[in-house]
Amino acid sequence: MPPSDVRKPTGGGVQSLERAFALLEHMADAGGETGLSELATSSGLPLPTIHRLMRTLVTSGYVRQQANRRYALGPRLIRLGESAARPLATWARPHLTRLVEGTGETANMALLDGDEVVYVAQVPSHHSMRMFTEVGRRVLPHSTGVGKALLAGLPDREVRALLARTGMPPATERTITTPDAFLSALTAVREDGYALDDNEQEIGVRCIAVRVPNAPTAAAISVSGPAGRVTDEATEKMVPLLHEVAQDLSAALAATHGA
């Protein structure tokens, strides 16, 4: 057999490229920072191969080596991610418009980027009183509806690891600030099929969110507005539309991704 770090096409591709992208994915799964031994465990690749690929990624700016010898995702990936998010937002806009028309509230789309939630698309409500979450804003997932919807798709151990890295600072007095309480909330999200931010990110604002199934990257959509309008009764009417739009958006993304 050839040495493991010899470049060899697999399935019409270049093995070293496949491995390099796989390592970046493993780093993202680990929260954006990891060591060589951890990468060896998660990827199954031999250390010499990982070391060679990481050296190339560091030289290219896609990975950086820190003072403690661990590796972190590099700044050049930010530009790629932002460029990739723009067409995603374009595809999402008509679906978010349906949510606004059907609920009367502001509709958002957000992605899980490392340990943070980033809002990539928004269609605002026609009401003068509405939630202002600008596109490009980054927040910690524990205090948002979209964050709960996204983390509900991960195993509890990965959620605990993420919360340990980010901490759980309170955005309001209603924010969940302990891992056990947050995991209990995620259990409810999985059972109910939707996530709720009840004054946890901003007092006076409620947000209902669902995950976009089978999206190429973890994504969620939401509607948000004043607590006086986004009541429990209104939530019951909004959730079916959220699921319908999430399914349609998933199908649109799959068609585009496979084209």
Count of separate structural domains:
2
Helix percentage: 40-55%
Biggest pleated-sheet summary: 6 strands, antiparallel
* Dominant shape: globular
Helix-strand sequence: EEHEHHEEHEEEHHHEEEH
Under the CATH scheme, the architecture of the largest domain is: 2-Layer Sandwich
* CATH hierarchy, class of the largest domain: Alpha Beta
Number of strands: 11
Please, how many helices? 8
**Mean pLDDT across all residues, rounded?**
86
Topology-level CATH name of the largest domain: Beta-Lactamase
CATH superfamily of the largest domain: GAF domain
Strand order of the largest sheet: 8-7-6-11-10-9
Span of the ends, CA to CA: 36 Å
What is the CA-based Rg, rounded?
20 Å
SS-derived structural category:
alpha+beta
Could you list some keywords that capture this structure?
single chain; 259 residues; Beta-Lactamase; six-stranded antiparallel sheet; three-stranded antiparallel sheet; 8 helices; globular; disordered N terminus
